[in-house]
Amino acid sequence: MQKHHTDVVKENNTLNLLNTVKRNGPMTIEGCCSTLHISRPTVLRILQELKDKHVIASSGVLTNTGGRSAQLYTLDPTWLFSIGIIVRRKHITVTAMSLNGTVAYYHCVHMEKDLDANLFIKYLFNELDSAVNFLKQGNKEIVGLALGMPGFIDGPNGVIVNFEQVQDCKNINIIQMIQERYGFPAILKNNTVLLTQIHAEQFLTEFPETLFVLIDDHSIGSALYNKGILVDGKRGDCANLGHVSLDRNGEKCFCGLRGCLTTTASIESMLHKYNQRCYGKTIDSLDAFIELLNHGDPVCREIVQLAGDDLGFVLANTAKMCDIKLIVLLFNKRWELPLLYQTTIDSYNKYILPSVRGIVEFRQDSFSSEEAAVGAANFVFDEYIFKCNKYSSAQLADIYLR
After folding, report:
1. What are the pLDDT digits (tens) for 149-203?
2. I need a surface site. Which of 103, 115, 160, 264 has the fewest CB within 10 A?
3. How many domains does the chain have?
4. 245 and 341 assigned to the same domain
5. What range defines the domain where residue 266 resides?
């Protein structure tokens, strides 16, 4: 039992040091000691072990110490790499990234409109083959892969239950296929959850209870964090607000249900509603829609305001149930929709309970397809190298207080 406790303390010290270097950048031995409150011999032992595993590397010296120069240590960018792959309705984005966050490989492929499951799998493995071959040519070690999928997934078991937008793409154990083909670990998550990884750190330090809501071309995604930890749910896609039903007799969603938030507040749904109402004036791009909106088109304004009203209504009801302190609305970097943002906040304030009004703050941020894949690659390192939140405060307190 005592040996188990000692092992836990040693691993916790190692993870704390590793995450401190990740967060602060290059650090000296003395800086590690003072920040983590552990002894110099312990820091030296940990650094040597991490150097032997190509996780930590020397990165020059600090000379302005008032005495002897001090060696700096940072994350090793040369050896360990991860792969992030994000699937959206029309394209697949792949990134290979080093441990220090340097993107070494990036590629995006647009898929054909009429896909079946076999063609989708072919696209997916063609992209993975290219990324894996690129890293192997440089003799890099691949830590693992994270795959972000839309649709209905079973993350813990690695199964695509139903990718509704691809014909017959059901009950496919995609993670088993990846592991058998390449031999390294793989993770399946909802694609929005992985995208928020790139944004989470800047908000979670101040607001550990945060809800991220992504307004995308054809869907509404979300990810919920409680005490700084992702609320993953049973299937790995918890807090999928896009399929909250607002009207059981509403328009049919691609998921097969009717009246989902996605059918009223996604960008594609706004274009669809505009084209329904403006005969002979069809538009097929958001740029055209925004241009009309900026010129004061009354139909555009009404559609955006209705979308914001629905989104604010759903967020208000979510906040009533969950202990949320911050809601971050993520918009694609290709556009700005300040009217949607403000209307959403106004709607939220209209529908929120008076007793909890003023507790939740709103922020807005932007995302890109590239960031989504980077978020997936980050998730691999957090899972297998940095092992964020492996030990709870209660577990450690129980050990240290014995």
Report:
1. 887 888 889 999 888 778 888 999 999 999 999 999 999 988 888 888 778 878 9
2. 103
3. 3
4. yes
5. 203-367
